[in-house]
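Propose amino acids for all 221 sites.
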């Protein structure tokens, strides 16, 4: 069923794009502009490309995170190019799927490291400071719990998470009361993440209570 759903998504060429305001303890700390679109992948075949730019500019130095993630029709992440613009320690992260493993290379100014992570079926890519990745994570939600493997390349860790669609519930987005689809992502370093989505699967809000972080989508102009 999941493969069929994803294949239909490709045929329909869906697209989502928007901007999140990221808040920590109620103060704005960053803005994230992202797009998700059906596309040909760099290694061939059809899938999706999720591109994000997150600018943390409320403190110094300014840090900009720019990941581009490619996801195949079977929902597996197949490639990642991720630039971390930090004047103290710039970094490029390259990820590639192959033979059931996701290989991550970390390219710094004076060093290069590589690490392989087991990547079984139902693997997703996440990052502690990039919130658009959770839109892909929500694809795995249903009324019964779904277990996924999450690889966090910049954090150097692999986690087992449980994703559940909790149904329609009330919340606030940009101080307005709304009823949205509520998805929970439980496990790992963040403990529990709350995702709030529209009926057509657009991600409007991400809440991480353990870190006092909320990312809310800016209304379209």
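Proposal:
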């Amino acid at each position: 069923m999941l493969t069929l759903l994803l294949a239909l998504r490709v045929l329909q060429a869906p697209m989502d794009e928007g901007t999140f305001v990221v808040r920590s303890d109620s103060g704005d700390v960053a803005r994230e502009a992202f797009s998700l679109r059906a596309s040909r992948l760099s290694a061939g075949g059809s899938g999706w490309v999720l591109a994000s730019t997150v600018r943390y500019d409320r403190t110094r130095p300014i840090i900009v995170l720019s990941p581009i993630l490619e996801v195949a029709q079977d929902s597996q992440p197949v490639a990642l190019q991720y630039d971390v613009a930090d004047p103290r320690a710039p970094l490029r992260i390259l990820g590639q799927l192959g033979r059931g493993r996701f290989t991550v290379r970390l390219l710094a100014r004076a060093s290069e490291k590589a690490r392989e992570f087991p990547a079984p079926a139902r693997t997703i890519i996440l990052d502690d400071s990039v919130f658009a990745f959770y839109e892909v994570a929500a694809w795995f939600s249903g009324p019964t719990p779904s277990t996924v493997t999450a690889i966090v390349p910049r954090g150097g860790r692999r986690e087992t998470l449980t994703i559940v669609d909790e149904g329609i519930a009330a919340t606030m987005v940009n101080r307005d009361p709304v009823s949205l689809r509520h998805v929970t992502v439980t496990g790992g370093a963040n403990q529990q993440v709350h995702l709030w989505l529209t009926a057509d699967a657009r991600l409007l809000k991400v809440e991480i209570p353990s870190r006092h972080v909320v990312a809310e989508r800016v209304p379209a102009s």
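The longest strand covers residues 157-173. Residues 3-13 have pLDDT under 50 and may be disordered.
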